[in-house]
Amino acid sequence: MKYFHNEIEAKWQQYWAKNLTFAAQNNSDKPKYYVLDMFPYPSGAGLHVGHPLGYIASDIVARFKRHKGFNVLHPQGYDSFGLPAEQYAIQTGQHPDTTTKENIARYREQLDKIGFSFDWSREVRTSNADYYKHTQWIFIQLFNSWYNITSDKAEDISTLVALFEKEGNANVKAVCDDNITPFSATEWNALSSEAQQRILLQYRLTYLAETEVNWCPALGTVLANDEIINGVSERGGHPVIRKKMTQWSMRISAYAERLLQGLETIDWTESLKESQRNWIGKSVGASVTFNLKNHDEVIEVFTTRPDTIFGVTFMTLAPEHELVIQITTPEQKAAVEAYVEATAKRSERERMADVKTISGVFTGAYAEHPFTKEPIPVWIGDYVLAGYGTGAVMAVPCGDERDYAFANFFKGTHGMPAIKNIFNQDISEAAFGAKEGFELVNSDFLNGLDYKTGTKKVIEQLEAIGAGKAKVNYRLRDAVFSRQRYWGEPFPVYYVNGLPQMIAKEHLPIVLPEVEKYLPTEDGQPPLGNATVWAWDTVNNVVVANEKIDNQTVFALELNTMPGWAGSSWYWMRYMDAQNDNEFASQDALQYWENVDLYIGGSEHATGHLLYSRFWNKFLKDRGFAPTEEPFKKLINQGMILGMSAFVYRVQDFNAKSKNENLKINLLDRLYVVSHSILKDQEKLKEIYIEVAKMSPENNSFQKVVSNIEDFELELSVSPIHVDLSVINDITNELDIEAFLNHPLYSDFEGAEFMTDNGKYIVGREVEKMSKSKYNVVNPDDICEQYGADTLRLYEMFLGPLEQAKPWNTAGITGVSGFLKKLWRLYFDDNGCIVTNDEPSADMYKSLHKTIKKVTEDIENFSFNTSVSQFMICVNELAQAKCHHRAILEPLAILVSPYAPHIAEELWSALGHEGSIATVAFPIFEAKYLVESEKEYPVSFNGKMRFTIKLPLDLSAAQIEEIVMADERTQQQLQGRTPNKVIIVPGKIINLVG
């Protein structure tokens, strides 16, 4: 009976689907375990073999936990809103919903083929209205909340209104906009409803504000910092500029400290935690106010080194700082405007990363030192960011390398004073940035003090003169929550006199309208500006045609959509109760599942999705909607499976070098492609050179070299060209030249001369990121068809530790395929099942229990690759022992089940069991089977081992000596002699001397 993986895998996949084998229960007596994969975006390209790596790991854990008696929630769904589908819609005119559904169907087909134990009854899609109505509801809760610093949590906005009505805002400690105007309770109560709404917008956790954003004209949308690479959009490589726009934002900054502290309570990698710490960027220091000469405005700066205030020689504002236009003098106006325009074309990330370029412009304005009253020139420079701190720095060149470089670069120019040294240290070559090992000098009342004492004293003095105070600052900025695109969650917002109004929960969802085109309108409005039915009727509570807008009962709806991270910032909770129409999840379901026990996904989401998810989870906890502070207890970042790219080498030049001359032969008259195997082979190159020369008899340079070819070193100058893996033999690396030439990608190679190695063209190979553009993608469907899903699962785990990147090599998969066939033969021969009820040997039990121990430990430690190795060792040992014993093979099938579930199910069924193996109890390790009862001793004569003898371990030295001396092999060695000495160490050595 042969192992036919296709039949077996299809059979059990159908069984699981029909019987809902992996459906989790929300009211089980079993302990719960929630294992989750990061939300996939369903791209049109489908899955390649790199994508399932994390899914296979999480599936092994999910299956293992079921065997261990847990009620396991292992769901899957799709983060199906996003820019790629919209861009495709713009290009083709096809509705994003259509292509998204097609992509999801393709993903589902591929995922099912690999045999994942997902609870598909809980599938969610962020682009489905029955999902995003809850995202809209969460947005409304954020709008109707404020952050109370006193209670250190978000509260309903009604509690803030109550405070205003009772005592005004003077004593209210809230996370809010800067420059809040104080008012009394009497003044508040006298305000109109509209005026009160405008004030509340300054406190709400989601609010409208004019914000510096990354605007991509080509895509017609705002991009987050992590969507920009080297100043261009990650999607499409389009230019990105900085501009001000009115946007929805979220006060994630209110949670900065809690986001930091929460990292100490979760089991994440230290590198991932450090990424979040750096992104949050906590700094302790002081806020200092500098008055501006000839202006009423002031410049506020945040500094971590207030002790250096007497070293300030100039100030730098971000080019986009709101004061720049106001304070720039007429003489400097042209230079400042040109610099501001140039800076707008660079992303914040690019500006932060570029530490080598020094640029800036003097505004012509001066600030006033708070203590000395000396004039301080005000510059602008792109190394200062408007969104970080206050967008202004007090430059102390003697104590900061960047200020030092800036001051020296502009040394001697108008508006740049000489560097002032306030340390008793040499700064002739570089700034002195240390916080210890110095005394302050030239610093008035701070002279002679160190960093700690100086900081404390200067803050006291700043507070005394009303020019500053101690402050904790965070790099983390409020998150822009608007996108000027179509394919995203609509906001549940309409506008009355320019003020946002929320649509009540019972009228949700506000469904994305149909539009004729997905580009922004001609006057620059977002794509929803093309919708003709996009207005809110407040009487009938429905969306109606725009022509009905009267601003009395029918009003305009929000034209922006929510960003890609909206739906993915709470999706794990929806899985807990995915069929609930009335709420995002019931309190019973939330209390039962609490949060995710194991989360597996890519490290690229460290400062995007993971930060926003933690923010929303904490907010929902504050408002009583979520049971826990943190969403993900343990998180593992899987490494990347890299592609093994293939290359052909197009010849550019054929160089011939000798001691006396270097001849560079241009071969553009004919297209040559050289095999990788002969690129460095001088003898082969000489043969080819001679052949090439014969084709070009008129080329004197060729003939000159050929006549004395042994004196020349030959070298090809080539361009590597990526080759589609379908036209090569993946094991021998030989190019199928005919298939290559017939491939549509390589039509321009028609007529090319192939420089082969004995008739074979060998491609070059290189490990790169698996990518469609590099033609190195391996389709998991092909692997499943040829070798089976169980082979794919085992092989991906076998490649190496989960967290590490590793190259894919299809050639290596045959070994894993062979292992499964060898496993099968323990249970079957050509005539059927051969499992017996005979009692196994001690060695068989030993092999089994070594494997139980190893696999249990490995899964609990997420060391899946070493489990696969142990399976191979165990099966080899059992095959050598001719083990067909039920007492061994039944537990072995269960052991294999998390890794290779299809074959395990078939083996379990063949052993006479009904139903699925999925929840059968996992074998228990028994140490007694690993206790050694015998020892194979080497028996030596005068230190040379002559034979071995197996003896019980409980024998004494005298008993061992008696047995050894009686052995005929000993007598042959001694030939009648009596040894002078017999050395015996029980359990270790036997040595006869003399």
From TrEMBL:
Methionyl/Valyl/Leucyl/Isoleucyl-tRNA synthetase anticodon-binding domain location: 844-956
Major location (coarse): cytoplasm
SUPFAM superfamilies: Anticodon-binding domain of a subclass of class I aminoacyl-tRNA synthetases, Nucleotidylyl transferase, ValRS/IleRS/LeuRS editing domain
Aminoacyl-tRNA synthetase class Ia domain sequence ranges: 765-795
Gene Ontology MF term list: aminoacyl-tRNA deacylase activity; ATP binding; leucine-tRNA ligase activity
Keywords assigned by UniProt, alphabetized: Aminoacyl-tRNA synthetase, ATP-binding, Cytoplasm, Ligase, Nucleotide-binding, Protein biosynthesis
Superkingdom classification of source: Bacteria
GO biological process, one term: leucyl-tRNA aminoacylation
Binding locations of ATP: K772
E.C. no: 6.1.1.4
PROSITE patterns reported in the protein's UniProt record: AA_TRNA_LIGASE_I (PS00178)
Gene3D superfamilies attached to this UniProt entry: HUPs, Isoleucyl-tRNA Synthetase, Domain 1, Valyl/Leucyl/Isoleucyl-tRNA synthetase, editing domain
Catalytic reactions of this protein: tRNA(Leu) + L-leucine + ATP = L-leucyl-tRNA(Leu) + AMP + diphosphate
EC category name: ligase
Stored InterPro entries: aa-tRNA-synth_I_CS, aa-tRNA-synth_Ia, Leu-tRNA-ligase, Leu_tRNA-synth_edit, M/V/L/I-tRNA-synth_anticd-bd, Methionyl/Leucyl_tRNA_Synth, Rossmann-like_a/b/a_fold, tRNAsynth_Ia_anticodon-bd
Motif ('KMSKS' region): 769-773
Cross-referenced HAMAP family: Leu_tRNA_synth_B (MF_00049_B)
Similarity annotation: Belongs to the class-I aminoacyl-tRNA synthetase family.
PANTHER family: LEUCINE--TRNA LIGASE, MITOCHONDRIAL, LEUCYL-TRNA SYNTHETASE
Name of the molecule in the record: Leucine--tRNA ligase
Species in which this protein is naturally found: Flavobacterium saliperosum
Gene assigned in the entry: leuS
